[in-house]
Design goal:
Largest sheet: 6 strands, antiparallel
Helix content: 25-40%
Structural class: alpha+beta
Number of strands: 10
Strand content: 25-35%
Number of helices: 8
Distance between the termini: 25 Å
Shape: globular
CATH architecture of the largest domain: 2-Layer Sandwich
CATH topology of the largest domain: D-amino Acid Aminotransferase, Chain A, domain 1
Order of helices and strands: HHEHEEHEEEHEHHHEEE
Radius of gyration: 18 Å
């Protein structure tokens, strides 16, 4: 069962003294609940990274996997749009070098190799625990829309399909998703599905304290979760 798999990942993190999941763990959790995450693999060597790049096809993205590096971009631990073997080889070496410069005794668990998702409408789905009501889900357009305009909507889990659809339509930027100035409309059904799956995940796993799927690229057909972050309650209990 997916929930058993999620439970093992969560307990593994907590037993390691972490109150957060690493990016590949967060994506595995999301994927276990049927959410459309990018194809990825944690590679332990340059050779393995190149081999997997061939499997999923160029271009690819490389990111460090380390419990000591939470903000990967800030330390030069993310390389995007790599188009061939030599670029992957160079990027792999630079990433490891950069994180060791950031922290000499950094713990490197590997490097994520993942597909480069095509640009689409950028949205965010998140969850934070409300002290009184429990898991509160959030939806909004990504990028400057969420950072500057704070154009987001909230609902308390568990959600119905009506709730999910309503919170999408509630934001001021909703017309962007329906298609303006000749752009194709975004696949709203795929967003409804992701929101409902997040609701199910956080309802069934109260040890999840906070969740961010950001960015999610949504297309005329389908969507891809590019990055995922999950924080845990150390007690493992719902607050």
């Amino acid at each position: 069962m997916p929930t058993n798999n999620v439970g093992k990942i969560v307990q593994g993190a907590l037993s390691s003294g972490r109150n957060f999941l690493l990016e590949p763990e967060s994506k595995e959790v999301a994927g276990s609940y049927g959410m459309p995450v990018t194809k990825f693999k944690v590679c332990k060597s340059v050779g393995e990274a190149i081999k997997y790049s061939h499997e999923i096809g160029y271009p690819v993205v490389l990111k460090i996997v380390s419990p000591d590096v939470l903000h990967k971009s800030d330390v030069g631990a993310v390389k995007i749009n790599l188009k061939n073997d030599s670029e992957v080889r160079e990027a792999y070496g630079e990433i490891v070098k950069n994180v060791k410069k950031f922290k000499n005794d950094v713990k490197v668990l590997g490097v994520i190799v993942e597909e480069l998702a095509p640009q689409g409408h950028e949205v965010i789905v998140g969850m934070a625990k409300d002290p009184q009501f429990g898991p509160a889900l959030m939806f909004g357009l990504g990028g400057i829309f969420v950072e500057v305009l704070k154009d987001v909507s909230f609902r308390i889990a568990p959600l119905t399909e009506y709730d999910a659809r309503d919170m999408i339509q509630e934001i001021k930027g909703y017309p962007i998703l329906t298609g303006i100035r000749g752009q194709k409309p975004a696949d709203i059904e795929s967003l409804v599905d992701i929101i409902l799956r997040v609701s199910k995940l956080v309802t069934e796993h109260p040890e999840i304290e906070q969740l961010d799927l950001n960015p999610i690229f949504v297309y005329p057909q389908g969507a891809k979760i590019v990055d995922a972050r999950i924080m845990l309650s150390v007690s493992g209990e719902k607050r």
